[in-house]
Amino acid sequence: MEHPKPEDGNIVAKHFCALPFTQFSTFNHGRHRLCCMAQEPEVDNPTDDLETVWNGDYMKNVRKRMHAGEALKECRDCYDLERQGIMSDRQWENIQNKDIVEKEIETWKQNNYNIEAPIIYDLRLGNRCNLSCSMCSGIHSHLVHVERSKMVAGGKGFFKGHRPYVYGEALTGKVYSKKEALLASSVDWDYILNNTALVKQIKLIGGEPTISEDLFTLMDACVERDHAKNIELQFFTNATNFTDSFLDNLTKFKGTKITTSIDGWGEMNDYIRYPSKWDHLWENFTKLVDVSSKHKKVKVRLSTVSQITNMWHMTEFYKKLFEFQESTPVRIGLSSNQLVDPAYYNVRYAPEFMKEHARGTLRGFLNNIKGSYWYEETFKEPVEDIIKWMEPENHIEDKEILSKHIHVTEDYDTFRKVNVRTVFPGYDYIKSYIGL
Predict the structure, then answer these.
(1) Does the residue 142 lie in any domain?
(2) Which residues make Cβ contacts (< 8 Å) with residue 267, sequence separation at least 6?
């Protein structure tokens, strides 16, 4: 299989992205944004319905500026990846939507960038989640909000004054209940459920989608109305909550791509994606792979967030995944996401000698599997993306940020009664490097 290259995603004009022309993207707490990578727009629109937002002044202005090749500050995370030679979401989505964009772009311009309706929905289903991942935020997980409020109330000072999300109250000592921490989604369900016949693709992210009743309502509606056969379904999940009926429903859509978020093998994943249980998670993942082996239209991906905590673990992780991939005929798509924010987990701030070690072991892993079919097909691109992100020219010297890494890690370890050294022996090297 020939893999697309980053430059394949440069269509129409410099900085152009297909998503504002094809996709409607919601955000928790009654907001919207251009896509899951984009910074939230500086417009006040929590009460606007889908139709109003879709062809509102903000969206039409974005389309016009993108068509002209203008860079948007909302899109800076994609631009940053592209400068490192890493394919961004912008480039990937341009490749996926190239045909419709090239066919319709001049018509859209003639219509003053008014577009009838989205054909893709990128829906956030609220912040209800069953995990409290260390690098996450309260807008994506209500348990993160609850846990951090308890940490501050208990005297763990790192998150004191932090906002769990842009419009939330700063944490000052009040302990939030799970109910208080929940944020509603901003999905206009009446509109979407009444227009499933027009939909080509639906992307779903939580919180954790598989504990949201809205996910099952949407899937059931598409199946019952016989529209599922025309819809590609995509969603991200932590793979902790699969049922047999849910797995069966996946097979009824035109295509289903499930991306599982797993950040390490065994104890490493449980440490970062607290309080997940590895044995249960991996059992679910293998069930999903089994469904894919019987139904070719169900595709499985595994997405990993590369960060300081797992930087020395990634080689061992990919070795384990390679062993599993060799044991099954089903291709498991792999992607590595380079964490940018919060900065205190960003690998670019790690000491250069630690990144040199990580780069060396990852390159050694790739060299060892070069003769395998799965080298080009599955492993080369995500591993090389991690290496590129760690290259010396991308290094940022900032010991203050590293001191924040130490502070937040020790606050979490004390509160959760865990020890980072059991999964990341390089932790003490960071402490020594900054003089602690």
Answers:
(1) no
(2) 278, 422, 423
Of 118, 136, 163, the last residue of a domain is 118
Amino acid at 186: S
Name 232's bridge partners.
Answer: 201, 255
C-alpha separations of 140 from 24, 55, 77, 133 in Å:
18, 27, 18, 10
Q: What domain range is 83 assigned to?
A: 6-118
List, for residues 252-266, the tens digit of each pLDDT value: 999 999 999 999 999
pTM for the model:
0.86
Tens-place pLDDT, residues 203-238:
998 899 999 988 898 899 999 999 999 999 998 999
Q: Where a domain ends, among 92, 118, 144?
A: 118
Q: How many CB atoms lie within 10 A of CB 97?
A: 22
For the chain, how many structural domains are there in total? 2
Strand (E) positions, 279-329?
298-306
In a domain, 258, yes or no: yes
Low-confidence ranges of the chain (pLDDT < 70): 1-3, 30, 42-48, 165-167
* Cα dihedral: 173, 179, 184, 190 (round 10): -170
